[in-house]
Backbone:
């Protein structure tokens, strides 16, 4: 139920969608006796689109998320026992249609583990990511093809293909791995997604070490940039989604703290 509600509300309440709905409803009301309301709604929608697409607001929301955990360490004090990679780096259906791995802008989730596996030859690699669509193709199929193509040792790679969101990533991966006390597991996901992911894994009883990738903002807040309208909209949408996810997961008891920290 939580999964279905989160997907429906996430779509309807996405900031860009809300702004467009306001503009459309406002424009329709301009031709009725409620034209004053129409002007107000259309103006609100237009201003929201202007702020999201033509100001650094998206970067301002994303920067605290990406800066919450330390950058991925070049050298660890001790080799990890395993590496967990969360899905979200590929378009599974398009990959199946084109018979080739089609990666998204979060491709570092799949490319970074290649270097990690070569650096830590004894570590196990777990990919966690199914499909959010009822009849969708699990993203594990894309990861498997991509990593096989680059020559990763298949005997060290395991796949969890049931999860549809971050909560299920944590629960199903924990059940698959059954981590033992004292083991060290790296968690690879986008830096913006890391706070929520860490919080959920902790709540599931699976302590992990953050290894963030896929940064979208500068470390120095003074270097906030506007990446162009399309990029700004995408950055704002991603950041707003993560902040909303943090609140929803905390209110429903899926994390212990609102903004998990190291």
Residues:
């Amino acid at each position: 139920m939580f999964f279905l509600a989160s997907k429906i509300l996430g779509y309807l309440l996405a900031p860009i969608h809300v702004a467009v709905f306001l503009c459309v409803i406002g424009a329709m009301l301009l031709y009725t006796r409620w034209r004053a309301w129409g002007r107000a709604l259309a103006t609100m929608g237009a201003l929201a689109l202007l702020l999201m697409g033509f100001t650094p607001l998206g970067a301002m929301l994303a920067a605290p998320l990406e800066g919450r955990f330390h950058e991925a360490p070049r050298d660890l004090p001790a080799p990890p026992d395993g590496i967990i990679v969360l899905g979200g780096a590929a378009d599974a259906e398009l990959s199946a249609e084109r018979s080739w791995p089609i990666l998204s802008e979060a491709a570092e989730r799949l490319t970074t583990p290649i270097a990690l596996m070569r650096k830590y030859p004894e570590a196990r690699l777990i990919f966690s990511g199914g499909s959010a669509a009822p009849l969708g193709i699990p993203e594990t199929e894309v990861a498997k093809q991509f990593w096989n193509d680059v020559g990763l040792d298949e005997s060290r790679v395991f796949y969890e293909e049931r999860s549809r969101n971050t909560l299920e990533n944590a629960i199903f991966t924990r059940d698959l791995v059954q981590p033992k006390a004292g083991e060290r597991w790296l968690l690879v996901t986008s830096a913006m997604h890391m706070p929520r992911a860490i919080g959920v894994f902790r709540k599931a009883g699976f302590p992990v070490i953050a290894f963030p990738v896929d940064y979208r903002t500068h470390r120095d807040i003074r270097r906030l940039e506007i990446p162009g309208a399309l990029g700004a909209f995408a950055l704002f949408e991603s950041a707003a989604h993560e902040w909303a996810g943090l609140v929803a997961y905390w209110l429903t008891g899926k994390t212990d703290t609102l903004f998990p920290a190291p």
Notes: The first strand starts at residue 82 and ends at 86. The chain has two domains: 2-65+226-249, 71-215.
